[in-house]
Task: inverse folding
DNA sequence: ACAAAAGTTTAGACGCATATAATTTCCCGA
DNA sequence: TCGGGAAATTATATGCGTCTAAACTTTTGT
């Protein structure tokens, strides 16, 4: 008897974690490697192998031994339901309970396994069906549809181009706090005014009229900032 | 590595469940029996015995073999923190997210293991530090202080006496829905106008001026309604 | 006062998710 | 094409919380 299963999905907490991690590691190119999953979930590789075996037997993912795994449609749907929960929770905590954007990830990471679909939908209603979370990530619909954004890292943008900062990972609180001190939030428009080679820093100009300013951003941080390219500034 | 522990308390989900269950079963008279805990938690009696052994080794409760268990001060404090979480959650879900009072228990039962102390305090602030949950149960303070109410079952009140319905268990959704259809909610004042012997029904008069009415309430339900006795109606 | 009934504990096992150590497979460079 | 290194898998074990079956107390009824 017993065994703690999540409401709505009916999967164990671990299963939910694996599916979400695999979803977030997926690329169109290659299957997701065992070691990558182990890294994200902070478990040993053999633990991943054994969970992967179970999940593939449940039809949630396809295991190509020694190559990696891919989500099946069923697995991807389950993963997207977890992503929806996570992002709605982050949005709710930020908008309704005064959390800062750097502290919601951890709280949502725990709550996503405990909330019912009903609670998530009530939160979504209270928020007016938000489309993006506080970090700019799109929120999947209840049906598992997600808007695929075509964004590129700030570090890849050419000097002179204009763009808008749209999204950043929710996983690094220190990084998020730093962005907050810079005044960079999703929606901030900027112009790339400089960029050093060899993974060097990027310089951007941004800020509302009057308080416009230039900011130097290190390569690592610039790679983490996902941006939409806007039309070139007309010289 | 691993093992899912709750934030803030640092106890496992099961430990939290046991402590809360034992707290709610405690009486000044006798220790809490193994079978009572097994009943509430829906586990087999031997499972209780083995958990009880662990918890008493951790100093959370005292085990009197074949007699039962009692919470130690540390165990009671931990239990009261869970009770606080549960009741704040129920109040928040009802007040801020439109839940009915019959459906919050189940949701809170899961969430209480996942929320951080910070989230609970933010909810408490948003609610204005409520003193009672939607079912009339007092909410312990952060420090584990709880207001001991001196209430008696409606089934024990004498004919002719006046009282105020104050509290009912949150565990039976059907019972709660029925009370809602009767218009009986915590705070409702009434007069006992009749009572049958041999665990028979109780008749009460209640309702605001104009819509006052009499209602027959079966013994079982009447036993569940905790009431404060008011002064006798002056004849 | 004692035997049956009721309740509790011990004994032994399982499922889940994890771990470490040893083995196997894959891939790439010489 | 073959050997070495990186990665994955198998084999085996552990901790937690649960279970059933059997043995043991305590309570109860006559």
Result:
């Amino acid at each position: 008897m017993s065994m703690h299963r999540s409401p709505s999905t009916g999967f164990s907490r671990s299963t939910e974690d694996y599916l979400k991690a695999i979803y977030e590691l997926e690329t169109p190119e290659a299957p997701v490697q065992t070691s990558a999953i182990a890294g994200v979930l902070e478990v040993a590789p053999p633990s991943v192998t054994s969970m992967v075996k179970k999940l593939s037997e449940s039809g949630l993912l396809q295991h190509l031994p020694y190559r990696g795994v891919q989500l099946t449609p069923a697995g991807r749907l389950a993963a997207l339901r977890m992503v929806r929960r996570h992002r709605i929770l982050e949005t709710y905590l930020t908008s309704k309970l005064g959390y800062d954007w750097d502290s919601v990830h951890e709280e949502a990471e725990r709550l996503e396994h405990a909330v019912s679909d009903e609670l998530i939908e009530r939160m979504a209603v209270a928020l007016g069906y938000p489309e993006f979370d506080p970090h700019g990530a799109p929120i999947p619909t209840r049906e598992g549809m997600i808007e695929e954004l075509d964004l590129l890292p700030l570090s890849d943008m050419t000097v002179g181009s204009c763009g808008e900062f749209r999204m950043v990972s929710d996983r690094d609180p220190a990084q998020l706090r730093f962005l907050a001190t810079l005044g960079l939030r999703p929606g901030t428009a900027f112009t790339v005014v400089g960029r050093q080679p060899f993974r060097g820093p990027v310089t951007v100009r941004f800020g509302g009229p009057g308080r416009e300013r230039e900011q130097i951003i290190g390569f690592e941080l610039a790679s983490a900032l996902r941006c939409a390219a806007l039309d070139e500034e007309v010289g």
